[in-house]
Amino acid sequence: MPPRARLYKTEAIILRGRKLGEADRILTLFTPTFGKMEAKAKGVRKPTSRLSGHLQPLNRCRLQLARGHASDVITGCETLASFRGLRDDLDLLSRALYVAELTDRMTADHVQNLPTYRLLLDTLGRLESGPAPDTVLRFFEMKLLDISGFRPEIECCVGCGNALEPVDNFFAPVAGGAVCRECVPGQSGPRVMTLNGLKILRLLQRGSYNDVARVNLPPELAEEVERHLHSYIIGVLERDVNAAAFIERLRREGARTRIEV
Amino acid sequence: MNERRTSTAAPLARLIEEFYRLPGIGPKSAQRLAYYLLRMPAADARSLAEAIVEVKEKVTLCSTCQNVTEVDPCRICTDAGRDRAIMCVVEEPLDILALERTGSFNGLYHVLHGAISPMDGIGPEDLKVSELLDRLRNGETTEIILATNPNLEGEATSMYLSRLIGPLGLRITRLARGLPSGGDLEYADDVTLTRAIEGRQEMDGA
Hints:
The structure holds 2 protein chains of 2 kinds.
Chain A: E1 7-20, E2 24-31, E3 35-41, E4 60-66, E5 72-81, H1 84-87, H2 90-106, H3 114-129, H4 133-147, E6 169-172, E7 177-179, E8 191-193, H5 195-206, H6 209-213, H7 219-237, H8 242-260
Parallel strand pairs in A: 3-5
Antiparallel strand pairs in A: 1-2, 1-4, 2-3, 4-5, 6-7, 6-8
Chain B: H1 10-20, H2 27-39, H3 42-58, E1 60-61, E2 68-69, H4 75-78, E3 86-90, H5 93-102, E4 108-111, H6 129-138, E5 143-146, H7 152-165, E6 171-174, H8 190-198
Parallel strand pairs in B: 3-4, 3-5, 5-6
Antiparallel strand pairs in B: 1-2
Helix pairs in contact in B: 1-2
């Protein structure tokens, strides 16, 4: 086996960071070549650190790393994209953090995963420039589930395997997808899935982002699709995504201020 | 640590165990500290023990600004010489120390005890935000300075607070973010440089 180089370079999107010791941080990176990995950033909590500004979560950057004992150490960094539009808007920032958290939770360390890297990068760009951030999130969720091997079954009923009738059916996250009226009694926690809801879920699953972006979702339908995907993701992860609660809170408080004004 | 046959005296083992629970202290450091204390003069050891007990018994949070204090309300809140119209919101009590060291701020403070971090599930309800709102509603504050850290969590916290406080009609400011003294322009990232350009200031040519 050839000796591994002490220094190596990679591109990465920074998913999150946590404090370590006096002035260091451990960063969770998502790279095109090594998949998700952790790396140590030394001294980045000091104000004069040359790296700190480049190593903020959601940054896409070019990194130089040195192999270390427990984790590799970042020795150089250059920002490729800072997605500033996401940082200056709390609603977009909370959604971008949701994207980063979901990517972190759905992927394994050190497994190369180029499709997820591309999806993550595209999603951050779409959030920054796109008109409908929630649609961007739904598309991201559906594609990420697909790439990760958790594609929900919405073509046929997961109970009997028959094609779904064009009527209101049910969505059972634990069973893995759509359930027809006949099979509902045996399922746990099914919720009504309207015909339009099913159509949108199928569009998210089969379509490209451009197909999805063309559809203007009425609020009730957007809410239904979000509910189905959210419950499905909780079923897959066996836990909630923290950032989702904050998005919900901002929505609630936003609605309240609008009513008060 | 587990129960095993050991020659260590029980009180010493207990002390090692207690040190081991502190952040950044591994098993070896814990042993070293414990043996150091053992050899220390009794008076020094007693003084250390008393300091630990005292800090837990006497230091509380100021009911007004949430800073750590031994008198409630704290000395800053009761200082008649301070400007009560301006309030600086910080993440941690240590930030107050840093700002006080500069000597260039003479208003009041409010400590949030953290920053919003959606990914870690830390929301406004985990911080002293409702206390801040109560203070602003009932107080004489006219300007609020958001002095959270210039990182992602700090920015999120500031944006959230300005949204929340906005309807109260106060002047809301944010500490300038830009190049650090002693820094190098060529190493600055885009966000920092952009903010430095936006926040540039007139130079007095006289």
